[in-house]
Amino acid sequence: MLAYAAGDRGSGSGSSDRQTDDVTARVLEWPGGQWILGVAGAGVVVAGLWVSVRAVRRKFLKDLRAEALSGRARPVVEALGVTGGAARGVVFAAAGVFAVVAAVRHQPGQAKGMDDTLRAFRDLPAGPWLLALVALGLAAFGLFCWCEARWRRVGHGGRPADGVSRRSRAWSGPRRTPGPGSWRRRRA
User: Fold this and answer.
1) Block means of pLDDT (10 residues each) for the chain, length 188 residues?
2) Rounded to whole angstroms, how far apart are CA atoms 101 and 24?
3) Number of H helices and number of E strands within the chain?
4) 80 with 55: CB under 8 angstroms?
5) Which residues pair with 152 in a beta bridge?
6) Contact (Cβ atoms closer than 8 angstroms) between residue 1 and residue 112
7) Fewest CB atoms within 10 Å of the CB: 50, 87, 159, 168?
């Protein structure tokens, strides 16, 4: 889990879990390692909850060009953002809980990567249903990411989000395009 949170996603099935066990075992060997792992796990829990709450409160809407969304697209994008963001936050929070448990029990094997975190959902009494809900939520997050890439507001330093400068927007004269042979007149 800590390896994944740090950006090391590995390559292939189960690799995040092996890396998580390795990182967790190393951290637990350090002086104060239990505390470090516990605080890191609690941080991931808080981050996961923060992601979920921001999704439910629809904070992602301020980053979207709402005027570009059609009347039918907006509720769909909102539903995908809320569902996907909440599911993503729940998965991170669950992984953080496993890290805290590993720290308290001083057992590196208790920390879980993303693969084992999702498997842990499956092993609960309502597991298959819960895992299906999480999978649908993560699929919704994937679709929301596509929507966000399509309708994200991008603008820096006071520049308009559509990329047109204020100066060119204010100029209303006709656009001249060079005609055939115009390059010869300029060179002569």
Assistant:
1) 45 54 77 89 96 95 86 92 95 89 78 74 82 92 94 66 50 53 53
2) 12
3) 8, 0
4) no
5) 64
6) yes
7) 168
